[in-house]
Design a protein that fits this description.
GO terms for molecular function: ATP binding. The protein is α/β, with parallel strands linked by helices and 324 residues long. The protein has 2 domains: 215 residues, P-loop containing nucleotide triphosphate hydrolases (Rossmann fold, 3-Layer(aba) Sandwich); 60 residues, 2-Layer Sandwich (Alpha-Beta Plaits), CATH 3.30.70. The chain is 34% helix and 25% strand. It contains 11 helices and 13 strands. It has a 6-stranded mixed sheet with strand order 5-6-7-3-8-9, sandwiched between helices. Strands 11-12-10-13 form a 4-stranded antiparallel sheet, with helices on one face. Helix 2 crosses helix 3 and helix 3 crosses helix 4. The longest helix has 16 residues. The radius of gyration is 24 Å and the shape is elongated. The structure holds adenosine-5'-triphosphate (ATP).
Amino acid sequence: MIELEGLTKRYGEKVAVNNLSFAVRPGMVTGFLGPNGAGKSTTMRMILGLDRPTAGDVRIDGTHYDRLKDPLTYIGALLDAKAVHGGRSAFNHLLCLAQSNGIPRARVHEVLDTVGLTPVARKKAKGFSLGMGQRLGIAGALLGDPRILMFDEPVNGLDPEGIHWIRTLMKSLAAQGRTVFVSSHLMSEMALTADHLVVIGQGRLLADTSMADFIQRNSRAYVRVRTPQPEQLSDVLAAAGITVVRTGDGAFEVDGGKAEHIGELAARHQVVLHELSPQQASLEEAFMRLTAESVEYHAHSGSGATGGDAPAARSWGEGWKGEG
Ligand SMILES: Nc1ncnc2c1ncn2[C@@H]1O[C@H](COP(=O)(O)OP(=O)(O)OP(=O)(O)O)[C@@H](O)[C@H]1O
């Protein structure tokens, strides 16, 4: 278990991590989600004792990282896959790590096998592709057979096969009862991988919720209807007890209604329809609304999901906290 309590990091005027408190629990994959610059990497560096908090505290199974004996056997991390001595072979890189942490040589062979790098184990890391580098970084994280694993954006730049492999690995590590903490800025990726979600924006906690709850709250199903006779359709639906929401482009959104039912009502009252389409709100949109206020650099498109809806975003964030 990883526990953060009021964790804060300032760089001069900049508050990179702002009073974060949450726990990362064993037996599940916890997704750590936030837009670019939200403070995910800084938080992970503080967990590993690589950055000193300005305030607050973080513990790994109740202990500070720098007081752990043989830390690689408690927590393994992939923070930056490029942080490997390029002149060393994959085998020698892992062997150095193993020897300086009291880990037997045989374990090097095991983790190379787990990540599928055995055939290239004697090749120099500088010749590795991005995907091979990620695999080597993950092998390093697994080396001490730790109960806690932490990955910072592990699927960045990987091809679909590599992404699938990492996803499956994280799930299987969690299924073994381990604590798996993985950062991403992609909601769609987390929806496929994580059991629990911690969302931050500008260093602050926005949500701490189960993935199932997030999906249930945000998978809004509705029917989109367009008609050249909006007043008539509105009256017909109201008479049937169906309330509609008018969208900016003149269409209607009907919550909880069936497309067939709406189509039949319209036909019965001779209302012409130009569109009748069932819709499902995307989780990516929900994430963008939640973090809208805290995105560091906006593209000003005028109508993007990152543009408005700040009050809704704030209230959703409040509602989610602590519901895990
Ligand atoms: N050493 C530093 N000195 C000054 N500012 C820093 C430093 N490290 C990070 N920051 C700032 O702190 C904020 C959080 O950065 P961090 O890298 O933790 O975010 P992130 O969520 O990991 O982002 P990304 O998804 O882009 O990697 C950013 O505004 C960043 O510019």
